[in-house]
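ok so I'm stuck.
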Amino acid sequence: MQRACDGEEEIAAMAEAIRGGDRRALARAITLVESTRPEHRARAEALLARLEQAAPADSVRIGLTGTPGVGKSTFIERFGLSLIAAGHKVAVLAVDPSSARSGGSILGDKTRMPRLSRAPEAYIRPSPSGATLGGVAQRTREAIVLVEAAGFDRVIVETVGVGQSETMVAEMTDVFLLLLAPGGGDELQGVKRGIMEMADIIVINKADGDLAAQAERTRADYAAALRLLRHRPGDPPGFPRVLTVSAIEGRGIDEVQDAIEELVAWRRKAGIFAERRKMQERARFRRALEAGILDAVTGDAILGAEIARLGGEVARGRLRAEQAARRAIAALDARLAASAPASGDAAVEEAAGEDAGKTAPSA
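replied:
not stuck anymore, here's the structure
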């Protein structure tokens, strides 16, 4: 009992420190939510419950992706410094690719953004992507909650790069930027339509020196391509927008910032911003549910052994993947039926009735 009380006091103290802007407490909290150990997950959930409503009222979450070598880190540094100059506090959640073999990652974003990393109004947190699709660390959503609770009102989520399920990035951010290098023809063909449809702002970087004219042609090409896409109901006139920047020279950065603020202001006024936040929470619930179900199934001794056996059958070509999945689901159904108490339905109905009674409006 005493240990439980001590744990609650520790979580309360950590939450208070994060609200006060304590960077060490914030770093420890993000490490806690990234942990997969069951006891850490319980503490992380308790911490998040205390901080869910602590975000700045005007916070904006910005997703950023781009092809390798396009200059994402240089752009983020310039963009982050511009946001700080405008009076914002900036958090960068930079997701580095993990090795499929060892699970390790380079985590070099702080070395690539030295000026921004030294700014007291900025916080850079590199995290390994692990096995998660979309270049997003498994607990990035929780990390967003934590940095916002610490007072950072502009959160940039930098992803691994184009080519994976970038839908996950759009699901957790308010504005989605696609960063591209100058190019045309085959370059335009190589960018997936799905990413084009998700992007709110396309930024053509490296618009300087010999590439300046090519960057402008690329901007025109993408602007023309966007006109062929169906208009999205959540966009004001002129969006999605295509802009050129030179991150290395700092030109065009203010225009990107202005475009983001214009888009966010319009969406707030139209009620679209709040609705997107609700969609982010629903997506967060869905991902957590999927991960929880998978953990529960593979963690069960009987089901885990059956899933391992079915996986071996698929690998040997004795079963198709779809057949094996159906059998795994059937095994799960049988396991649930065998473990459910006889009065389970009545208990569920009773609990539902109690909840309904608590929330029912008075006559």
